[in-house]
Amino acid sequence: MVYEEFKAKIREHFNDVEVIAGVATGAIAHGALVAEALNLPFIYVRSSAKQHGLENLIEGELQKGQRVVVIEDLISTGLSSLKAVDAIRNAGANVLGMFAIFTYGFDVAKQNLAERNVKTYALANYEQLIDYALKSNRITNQDLELLEQWRIEPENWGR
Q1: Which of 28, 88, 98, 146 is least buried, going by the fewest C-beta atoms within 10 A?
Q2: How much is the average pLDDT of 23-46?
Q3: Which domains does the chain show, CATH number per domain?
Q4: Structure pTM?
């Protein structure tokens, strides 16, 4: 189970965590399961504030100074993940790090996260996926060449 892997990795790297945060919307369910498994409070962070009601960006109780681990489903450029990190930091809490289910491992993401001092871990990455697909004959060597070309510059792929 994904949440069990997250639980083990969080205990390994951030044993002093006090709150688990899920990034809306893809990581809310995963974050909630991780929080439950660790017996910790859960919050989630929207990409933008609600346009009605309390207009919250963060849902759930978060106190200043609390130590938070962010759960993300996918990291591509890291920018949406960093919006959540910024919101938590702006609320006065401390982000210990981030765990993702999957990352493409793009240099831009590594740079963006490093610039904001966010320690990031992923359960799986693009290289692992491609290696598995090749070894299990789900892709050919010709497919591999195309996928490696895409990986170099995905934003300009097919142009």
Answers
A1: 146
A2: 95
A3: 2-125 (3.40.50.2020)
A4: 0.91
Spatial distance between the Cα atoms of 103 and 116, rounded to a whole number of angstroms: 17
Please report, for residues 23, 33, 60, 153, the alpha-carbon distance to residue 92 in angstroms, rounded to integers and kept in the order given.
17, 24, 14, 37
Stronger pLDDT, 6 or 25, i.e. the higher one? 6
Burial 76-85 (b: 16+ CB within 10 A, else e): bbbebbbbbb
What number is the average pLDDT over the span 6-12? 95
pLDDT tens per residue, range 105-117: 999 999 999 999 9
Strand partners, 26: none
Instruction: Report the distance separating Cα 86 and Cα 39, nearest Å.
Output: 25
